[in-house]
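Two proteins were folded this term; both appear here.
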Amino acid sequence: MLLLIIILIALYLSLRFIPKKLLRFLSPLCVPFVNICIAFRLKKRLEDKSRITERFGLPSQKRPFGKLIWIHAVSVGETLSVIPLVNEIKRQKPDVSILLTTMTVTAAQQVEQRLGDKVIHQFVPFDIFSWVRRFVKYWKPSVAMFIESELWPNMLFYLNDKNIPIYLLNARISDHSLARMFFIKKYFGILPFSLFSSVLTTSVKMKNATELLGAHNVRVLPNLKFVSDKLPVNETNRKRLAQKISKRKAWIAVSTHPGEEEMIIKSHKMIKQDIPDILTIIAIRHPARVSEVSSLGTNKELSVSIYSETMRNRKHIIEDLLLIDEMGCLGEFFEIVDTVLVCGSLVPGIGGHNFLEPLSFDCNVAIGNHIENFKDIYPYVKDFCIQVSAISEIKDFVVKSVQEYERSEGHIRTLNFKAEWKNELKEILKVL
């Protein structure tokens, strides 16, 4: 018992006074647990098996000669938000290479579709010190930019050791995470906010919080998602899709998660009472779940069609539900379908997804009440974007919208924040 107490005290003192050395010492002990995590993610198809070595810091592409900027965007939302950033860097510094890392397969697909050879894409390594060191030594970034709330201590400490400037852009931390961070800072003092050269956040509240957590040179800028370009539209696919939907009334629920599809399917059955031929389109956040969501529909005695099969083989969509099992096609749907429900917001624990995307097409948009990820954005668009929670409210919104809504320009097109970000980026790029 005494030995255990001594070990715990030693660990506490180490975390308090030499956290960098302790984290490096402990990280090899975490490898077996990380390998279990990787195996689980592979089974769930959350990792790309052909590129899994990238998660160990092993590169799959050759580093180009010259200066390189590293941008880390975790998932789809962050990836889409950095596209204007990438374009502006290439405009200001055309000879500089950009390494863009993500954690999710769906984000990697967006990088391929939206950015192509403008960037080098890799999956980010897990925060094991030897893997981190291997990654940084190979890519040798001149600048590192982390998007929103990615705080990997081994990575940040090592970048700092190598005198590589680190920026936290669009810093956004939930109230729950902030409370945890303040606890850690108070009793352990190991938060790496002081390692950032600058923190760019989206609100005065977040500025104050990050400064209390140790950040310096904190600036308030508009949310990067305001700067994002409109989703691309494949005109050929748009025409084909319009022909397949034909004259049917339709609505779309985008970025759905478990628990939300059930609500959407129940809403569909209620909507059918008023609009018998209604087409409900579901864009699943993780398309690998398409079979699971299809079963939810068939179990409720609804007919289901799958987007990829429909686009290849069908003249018209006659089923109750259309499930989107591909990435990169939402622009075509937003051009055709006026009524949009943005999910990730109907159930707690996700925080919502980007409702600015359909609003930029002048769609009629609804969201749920759980929009923690977009609290700073919603006040700007609340006149164009209503909140719903109950299934009956979803049904009422859809019925009224598909029967009455007519698109008119306006919405967020009047909100132009790009100039502020361009000026800030000039300051960041001066270090090159």
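Next, the second protein.
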Amino acid sequence: MDKIILIGVDEIIEINKILGGGVLNRSNLNFLVAQIEAKYKDQDFKRQIVKIGAITWMSLIQGHSFIDGNKRTATETMQMFFDKNGYYLETSTAGLVYTSLKIANNEIIYEDLIDWIYTRLKKVLI
């Protein structure tokens, strides 16, 4: 089985820093990383990648760990995670923005977000 490459707290903070934000609650970020490391052990490698991407995206948007740029940071972090693991989301920028807003407004549940990502997640072909 492939080894999953996770994103660390410092990487998430750096993404937000580039986007012009600032840390509001580092504990939320530490909790997110610990949650991912402890919780997601799925037999299906792609599904595990999807679950980690979904919880990252959702937790960073809804957790408001940053002064500004929570949705942008969440989206960039999720995409960086997929990229590090050899995947990409086949969707438009508008699709990412729309889904981020649905997450922020509690208009999509975790299970539906997993399905949305799973249908669009593609393996990078080298």
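The longest helix spans residues 45-63. The two ends are 19 Å apart (CA to CA). These notes refer to the second protein only.
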